[in-house]
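step=predict obj=TetR/AcrR family transcriptional regulator n=204
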Amino acid sequence: MTAPLRLTDRKREAIIQAAIAAFRADGFEVASMDRIAAKAEVSKRTVYNHFQSKEELFSEILRRLWATSAAQLDMTYHSQRPLREQLRELLMRKMRLFNDSNFLDLARVVIAATIHVPERAQEMVARLASQEDGFKQWIRDAQADGKFKAADPEFASHQIYGLLKTFAFWPQITLGQPPLDAPTQTHVIESALDLFLSGYEIAK
């Protein structure tokens, strides 16, 4: 049983959720600490007790996004299992992530806040790339095992994630489309696997 949050932790969480809502509604530059305090139903002083600036609040939102994303990318290569089976598990985890409304809200806030600030965008891309190191290692291990063609692991990892994001991430982020239903998720995953493995798997 999970222990209840202390009052100070509940206030901190309320502030973070209020910041996500304010950044999404008004944009990072326009949203104010006053507005965030009002949304969180706490005093402005309480907000500053937890976060010294909007930038610090934004950093916490970034941290949550990276942590949520990283939890989906832990992957170990297994030489006795078919590549398709292993990759299907990875894509199913990613698909579950793309269907998480909290993750999508965080992603919308982060993307909107980075569009007009190149420095933030560069940091986001660098961090996302580092989160995918586990899958890149999986590709290297599959190559060493003679199951995966010689290819740049970074390029290949971007490619397979792109096949998913075209249908299950970007339309939801940019156009407000609903998450894919279960049959469509399965179709997108299996089609991505067909395309990816036809180009990279070494035939037996």
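step=describe
The first helix runs from residue 7 to 26.
step=end
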